[in-house]
Amino acid sequence: xxxxxxxxxxxxxxxxxxxxxxxxxxxxxxxxxxxxxxxxxxxxxxxxxxxxxxxxxxxxxxxxxxxxxxxxxxxxxxxxxxxxxxxxxxxxxxxxxxxxxxxxxxxxxxxxxxxxxxxxxxxxxxxxxxxxxxxxxxxxxxxxxxxxxxxxxxxxxxxxxxxxxxxxxxxxxxxxxxxxxxxxxxxxxxxxxxxxxxxxxxxxxxxxxxxxxxxxxxxxxxxxxxxxxxxxxxxxxxxxxxxxxxxxxxxxxxxxxxxxxxxxxxxxxxxxxxxxxxxxxxxxxxxxxxxxxxxxxxxxxxxxxxxxxxxxxxxxxxxxxxxxxxxxxxxxxxxxxxxxxxxxxxxxxxxxxxxxxxxxxxxxxxxxxxxxxxxxxxxxxxxxxxxxxxxxxxxxxxxxxxxxxxxxxxxx
Length: 412
What we know:
By secondary structure, this protein is α+β, with helices and mostly antiparallel strands. Helix content is about 25%, strand content about 20%. Helix 1 (about 35-50) crosses helix 8 (about 305-320). GO terms for molecular function: oxidoreductase activity.
């Protein structure tokens, strides 16, 4: 049964702030779910007010064109075999053997790694796929882990063990050094005010990035209808902006007010777009600037500007224009370069017997990793180096991450 859309439930207070000159600046008319009509009207209005915007110089040193396998459009891919890696019977037997080996060690779950989860032939193949993430197309799908053949604890161990060959470091995503997050509709069991992220609804999730280098999603179950996983090259989006709207690249490269949603500090200032070591990196989640359901945009922090609002919508609609829909099946693991690819998902419908349920790891491959932009170094250090293996925990059941809880938590 489809749940009520979050737009109908969300608290949408008008937000204003008084500047030192006494002028009142309002939060633009923008919500989490992008509105194409509003976007086109805002773009037309801003260009009418300042026709010189498209002639704005790019930030110093930024490239006019990115030329890389990471620049692609959805129509460039003709067949799933171009991005999927199919597990063979030999690979599956190796995984079973590695699981039994790890369980025989009687060590804590966070100790699962390439040494404790040996995959003689699959391991090297996965290391090759990790190179594809960093220097090739930027994504691949591993197909297919027989989910129903394992207990929940064992399937999580398999997921972590296999993924260690793609990225050996796992980021902390939640309190108690939780490194595994669940993506599942919880609107039937939790009030709307407790939900501060679209991951816990059936709603469409707009194009965005997570935190960290590599995003990995493992499908424990798919929806009855909908829920298509979509990805889009942020480098392709950059190229279009550089050609047509360099002013928006300028806007994205300047500091934005990132909402702390009641945390300390109440907000942070950082760009959304970086150019480091000859690589473009875009790191943003729309909800940080619009709020979502139980986490509305804080009223006591500086609002975003009309330029910011246009940039957010432009990123989304260009990513949508060039997206690739992945045929994400039960038992598949999706690996994505979070520094060069946006991801999103369609709205979906669950039933009592078939409910979309993903688990997520944020990974880093220290041998292949891109240089982290200086403005993100503190966050990355906290993500990947704050918890020792014996401290890492893997939540077995869905729960709302502390960073995504409504009512004063932090958005992630």
